[in-house]
Design brief:
- The chain is α+β, with helices and mostly antiparallel strands.
- It has 9 helices and 11 strands.
- The protein has a 6-stranded antiparallel β-sheet, with helices on both faces. Strands 8-9-7-10-11 form a 5-stranded mixed β-sheet, sandwiched between helices.
Length: 335
């Protein structure tokens, strides 16, 4: 392709980021051949979760495209080209088993001929070759990944959430780090399954998972997960409660704009709000779950926040008391 530079990046859905695995060719300052931690939040490059997702999910197949330093496509690729003295690039998605795995990126320096559509088609072929090689390695990693990954959405699973939340709360006890938990219940999934079929329902779950991953990337270090069924969550350690609530509001807005479904009900519980002592992840889950329940019941278009809505704390504590007496909880939730 006569490129000056090439890179392969992996989309880490649970972290909401593109992580660069290898840089090859004429590298600029800060570009290492095998970087330890060169990554970019996916909201800087929204096409990985938005523009291309609709093509993959719709069965249209992946297509490479050309970006220019003087182009006007949304995102920051044009800025990156100008900053590094490059004129054009080709981006080709790498797809494994029908799911976006990452991307192949090839760039040319300023002054060289621009890439064209023929180059983009060739890049798509190269990406398919890369995918074939990765598939072998992916099979070797499958058992390890399945232990911590939801197979439908590619997000983290409940086991990964429990581990991350326990680590975050230990950090909170040591240094006062703000720990926040967002619980999301996707509205309208049953109706989609009943009227359009489970394949379409799965597409809705995947699409919302991408939305949550995209928004989660706005919170450094956040973990995004599917708990099961129509329930998702986000674990944040570090960002303020206000920032977590702001990002959760963005999740609600974007979910309401999805073609399928009926939006999402979100509940937030954060040690940065007046919720009382949090001695275990169980209490944080109970509070976030109670907030989500109230959002669901009120058909709220915005997140409900434990502590800012004092009724939520009372609801969660009453549920805890009932559990202590061996009674069944009255709102949905986890142990």
């Amino acid at each position: 392709m006569d490129g000056s530079f090439a890179a392969i990046s992996a989309w880490e859905r649970e972290r909401g980021r593109l992580r660069v695995l290898v840089n090859e060719g004429e590298r600029r300052a800060g570009e290492e051949e095998f970087p330890e931690d060169e990554s970019y939040p996916v909201h800087d490059f929204p096409e990985i979760t938005e523009f291309l997702h609709e093509r993959w999910a719709g069965g249209g197949g992946p297509h490479a495209w050309v970006e220019s330093a003087v182009g006007d496509r949304p995102g920051r690729r044009g800025d990156a080209l100008r900053r590094r003295g490059r004129g054009t690039c080709v981006v080709a998605p790498i797809v494994l088993s029908g799911r976006a795995w990452g991307e192949l990126y090839v760039a040319r320096d300023e002054g060289l001929p621009d890439f064209d559509e023929d180059d983009a088609e060739f890049a798509a072929v190269l990406a398919a070759v890369v995918a074939a090689g990765l598939a072998q390695n992916e099979r070797l990693e499958e058992a390890r990944r399945l232990a911590f990954t939801d197979p439908l959405t590619g997000l983290a699973n409940r086991r990964a959430v429990d581990m991350r939340l326990d680590e975050a709360l230990e950090e909170h006890r040591r240094s006062g780090t703000v720990v926040s938990l967002v619980v999301c219940d996707l509205n309208g999934l049953k109706r989609v399954n009943d009227t359009l079929g489970h394949a379409t329902g799965d597409r809705l779950l995947e699409r919302f998972g991408s939305v949550l991953s995209l928004c989660g990337a706005m919170l450094p270090g956040a973990l995004v997960a599917r708990l099961g069924g129509d329930e998702f969550c986000l674990v944040s350690a570090g960002p303020s409660a206000d920032e977590v609530v702001r990002v959760t509001g963005e999740v609600c807005v974007r979910a309401a704009e999805l073609e399928l479904g009926e939006g999402v009900a979100c509940g937030v519980a954060s040690t940065g709000d007046p919720i009382g002592p949090v001695k275990s992840s169980r209490r944080l889950f109970r509070l976030a779950d109670a907030a989500q329940y109230k959002a669901k019941a009120a058909r709220s278009a915005a997140p409900v926040v434990a502590g800012r809505d004092t009724a939520v704390v009372r609801l969660a504590d009453a549920a805890a008391a009932r559990e202590g007496r061996g009674e069944r909880r009255r709102f949905r939730g986890r142990q």
